[in-house]
Amino acid sequence: MEEKILVLNFGGQYDQLIARRAREMHVYAEIKPCHEVTPEEIRELGYQGIIFTGGPNSVSQPESPRCAPEILELGIPILGICYGAQLMACLAGGEVGGAGTRSEYGKTALRVEECPLFQKVPRESVCWMSHTDFIQKLPAGFSVLASTENCPCAALGDEERRLYGVQFHPEVTHTACGQQILHNFLFEICGCRGLWNMEDVLSQTIEEYREKLAGKKVLLALSGGVDSSVAALLLQRAVGEDLTCVFVDHGLLRKGEGDLIEETFRGRFGLNLVRVNAEERFLKELSGVTEPEKKRKLIGEEFVRVFEEEAKRLGNIQVLAQGTIYPDVIESGKGSAAVIKSHHNVGGLPDVMSFESIAEPLRQLFKDEVREMGTRLGLPKELVWRQPFPGPGLAVRVIGEVTKERLELLREADAIFRQELEAAGQEAKASQYFAVLTSLKSVGVVGDARAYGYTVALRAVTTDDFMTAEWTRLPYEVLEKASSRITNEVPGITRVVYDVTSKPPATVEWE
């Protein structure tokens, strides 16, 4: 790779979004936790720029994540974002304190000064703020480059040393000129040229795993989702007949999904596919469990145990392969980030496994990059753009205890909702849409008789990164028809509601 930048994570959840924005401009961004890299390593690895991410901590707290002050003296351009800007100010000799009534959250009017970071950015625009501290005193050599009504220093910079900090988040879509600001930093300040591309990534990844897995038998966890499907085709290119795909039908899939997966990958692609019908054992493990994290971890462990059994039956399997992508890693709290939810293939893995190693060829890619890779590998459009589906399946869309009866209710309601969206041509409007079976029961009227049934919540979100998402404004007519069909065709459901919560504050999934 001829050029790359370092995204240094300080505990926030937006590091992958920052990296993704850079990659959209064909600049490779590598993410590392702040405590895992030294100034010497940064110098040796030849980064053209560094971005300090935001984070949930206060710089004034002794236990807050930090990096060595010497990083500021490497001569490499640095952009600090939110917490990263405050940390830069502190490391350079400035002061940060509590904002009090000057705390800002959400869309905020921003005024910028002329400087390389704000080229082609209007003097007045809108940014996305989220801070309780602010920069009280500038370090020597720095000047104020932007302000808001409540934040006198919304951006600062030492243009001679190419050190810049912004209190707001340019990486989120809510910041009107955020992409331009990041472009200015990468191309005008760091001197990047935009050489990174997916064709090179694909060929390099195939070659890497061909060498790494040479002579080893590989067992891939194939769910039929985009990620594991792309991983399967990629590893098939790398190791050929040494790859066996195991599809665990845990009974937590959507309507008709198990048969579709088997027909597609065994019939169409000729993969060596083993289907394991394990519904009873998964439901037994989940019996009486209502806590979401426990569900995820139980499912994760049971997955691995099934794979171990299949590996033993097949004989001489050394490697467990998974379709893990970077959002799985960061949301599971790996590195410096806080746990949002443990993904079954990351935070849900047990500590002791019988495999020699785990292969995760997509671990550093975002969802849109996985889709692009899948297209290049020949995965059909209907699979490349298939709806995202959580690894634990419907277990995290059934609120409370998971039973076969409750799963059947959800399957039917979910299928109806998806059918109505697609029939109305609204599927392209939403990035993800599904139904959730809540634990709430309410009174209804069915055939002039009183009924007491479950409430189903319909969820549809629009996003380009899945780190932030807006609830989708679906036509009332579509919601009305879906609601009418669900309450009429699915006995046991008496009420339908629509989720109008964005991410944040909510996650896309309910659990």
Q: What is the first-to-last residue Cα distance?
A: 39 Å
Query: Helix fraction?
Result: 25-40%
Strand content of the residues, in percent?
Answer: 15-25%
Mean pLDDT: 89
Q: Please tell me the CATH architecture of the largest domain by its name.
A: 3-Layer(aba) Sandwich
* CATH superfamily heading of the largest domain: HUPs
Question: What is the CATH fold-level name of the largest domain?
Answer: Rossmann fold
Shape: globular
**Number of E-type strands:** 20
- Report the C-alpha radius of gyration, rounded: 25 Å
Low-confidence stretches: 334-352
Tell me the major beta sheet.
9 strands, mixed
Number of continuous helical runs: 14
Name of the CATH first level of the largest domain: Alpha Beta
Q: In terms of quaternary structure, what is this?
A: single chain
Count structural domains.
Answer: 3
* Strand line-up of the largest beta sheet: 2-1-3-4-11-10-9-6-7
Sheet/helix structural class? alpha/beta
Give the secondary structure arrangement, pairings included.
Elements: E1 4-9, H1 15-24, E2 28-33, H2 39-45, E3 49-52, E4 78-81, H3 83-91, E5 95-98, E6 104-112, E7 124-131, E8 133-137, E9 143-147, E10 155-158, E11 163-166, H4 178-189, H5 198-212, E12 218-221, H6 226-239, E13 243-249, H7 257-268, E14 273-277, H8 279-286, H9 292-314, E15 319-321, H10 326-331, E16 357-359, H11 367-376, H12 381-384, H13 404-423, E17 432-446, E18 449-462, E19 470-471, H14 476-489, E20 493-498
Parallel strand pairs: 1-2, 1-3, 3-4, 4-11, 12-13, 12-15, 13-14, 15-16, 18-20
Antiparallel strand pairs: 5-8, 6-7, 6-9, 9-10, 10-11, 17-18, 18-19
